[in-house]
Amino acid sequence: MRIGWYINRLRSMGPAEVLHRLDEQCRRIVSRRRDDGRERYPSPPLHQVLRGLRDAVLAATPAQRQAIAAAAQNRLGGEFSALGQTWPRRDRDQLFAPELWRLDPVTGKLWPGLESHTFDIDFRHRDDRGDVKYVWEINRLQQLPPLAAHLLLASDDQARAAIEAAIDSWHSANPPFRGIGWASGIEVALRAISLIVTLDLVGDRLGAATRQRVGEILAASAYWLPRFPSRFSSANNHLVAELAGQYLISLALGTESAAARNALLAEVHKQILADGAGAEQTPTYAAFTAELILLCAAAARQAGKPFPPAAEARLAAFADFVAWLPRNAISFGDDDEGRVLTLGDEPGYVRSVAAAIHGLLGMPGNMPEPDDFRSLFFGVPQGPAPAAQGLQTFVQGGLSIWRGEMNGRDVELTFDHGPLGYLSIAAHGHADALSLTLCIDGEPVLVDPGTWLYGSGGGWRDWFRSTPAHNTLNIDGKSQSIMTGAFNWSHKAVATLAQSERRPHWKLRARHDGYKSRFGVVHQRTVAQQADGILVTDQLLGGRRMAEIVFQLAAGLRADRDGDTVMVLRNEEPLLAIRFPNAAVDIRAGGEAPGQGGWVSPRFGARQPAERLAWHGEVGEGGIQIHLAAIARSQR
């Protein structure tokens, strides 16, 4: 597994990246001998970064105060949940034992700690301890800003004691650069941001020793981040987080880093495309990237050096893109629930970030939830924006969205004709070219399957990002793009939008070449509005093949088949009729192994059985047609 992983990674690298990786390895060897020890990173004087934050939190609404208090009480009660898992509950008098920072909540095993240099810990190929994302999640210290906000609002001494205990414990258990907590730059950066926000809120209420320890952690982080950057095939959201961390730490240390600022501004235009879509082909990672940039933009404004209008315009474009996405089914590609400022579980994360962008920029937009924590940092939109309706195509992002009415129902449809993902390994993309999703009256009906797990996902990780798991055509159960690891792809399907018409009835046509080299055919899909529904036409250009066309239902829905027509119901209410060319439709949910039936992952680390409709038959250039129609509420 380890040798194969390295071989596949090397195949995706160009000469410049190979040289970079060799140089990086040499720097790691030197670092093992030279860079350890707290004495190398004394605490410098610290400066406030988000100067207006205290006043903004003190002006919190009753709903925000209640949400902050609830989150804080959970933390003070020894509760912590993330990524679909709940950590073992801790006693109030020992909330932050040293082992907490190494504990996997699923396996109960401990990752290496201060006895191991961080570069000696194999977190990519040692899955016997569990998925490393769990242990990294609690090391981000994102539980501290809610405690700090609660301390500011309620003067709760328990919150102050908990913040000091957490910082002191983490500092003691994770000296530079020992243990799993220092193993990834993105983790170093997010932890630093949590500490900066905490000090900006309540630094004057913490003891001098605790503030000194924060300074030492920030000093070590400032040294570490520019020396081991994510570059080339890894220069995705990880790089943005690292640059944001560098920039905000430099402000906290009193010397703005022009290099970090300029590099971050360059990434704004790489990671958020001109039409507002995210380059990584996943809205949640795009929101995470946008939130990092937004926090830096807010800090730059308060430092008197605002970001250029072009950077703010790119953030606004992302917020406008989000306004078109289906409200309750906006995920595709990977989603690891990464956040920057959070109270905990946030099902409306992407829309919250979009509202924050409109708030900081003083623009109309969709309003956040009344208890939204993020709006304390960035404000709320000036007013509501007009509802997005009709057909919108995001050409660079490769996504078309239709929002309209069908048989008295509100319908939201997405059609994916974008690239697999970002950069050479397309790490967070899924093999979902020409896939559809459909919502009726705001509720998901035909869905993207989700993510499941990363490092410990095994065969299930592969299934959830495979073509047969998505609402598109596959041949012989093969994916359009070829996986070579949990985040690697070798052959990547190239999708192209061939036609986009709006009137009198809209029509979209796209194709991809993912099966051409193996099966000699190109998959072309046409999605067209008709008076009584939507017609989906699938063709294989260049030959004929036995194929499978999939429609994955949301969890909780059921399918009733009557001849060539499948009725999709929620409880006993008919929602959608799908008419196939014939009755060769297999309907299955769950199964012991990937591919035996339908599964959806509503969030990272969770999966549920859900009915998967799969039509099987021969497809050629003449194509086959499948008709979708929402069912009026009065029809039974």
Explain this structure to me?
The protein is of the alpha+beta class and 636 residues long. It folds into 4 domains: 1-31; 42-228, no CATH class; 230-387, no CATH class; 390-630, Beta-galactosidase, Chain A, domain 5, CATH 2.70.98.70. It is 34% helix and 19% strand. It has 17 helices and 21 strands. The strands form 5 sheets. It has an 8-stranded antiparallel β-sheet, with no helix packed on it. α6 (144-154) runs antiparallel to α7 and α10 packs parallel to α12. The protein is globular, with a radius of gyration of 25 Å. The mean pLDDT is 94.
How much helical structure, as a percent, in the residues? 25-40%
Radius of gyration: 25 Å
Q: What is the CATH class designation of the largest domain?
A: Mainly Beta
User: What name is given to the CATH topology of the largest domain?
Assistant: Beta-galactosidase, Chain A, domain 5
Overall pLDDT level: 94
Structural class: alpha+beta
Number of helices: 17
Which spans of ≥5 residues are poorly predicted at pLDDT below 50?
none
**Major sheet attributes:** 8 strands, antiparallel
CATH architecture call of the largest domain = Distorted Sandwich
Q: Strand order, main sheet: write it out.
A: 9-10-11-12-21-16-15-14
> What is the global morphology?
globular
Strand composition percent: 15-25%
Total domain modules: 4
How many individual β-strands? 21
Key features?
single chain; five-stranded antiparallel sheet; 4 domains; eight-stranded antiparallel sheet; 636 residues; alpha+beta; 17 helices; globular
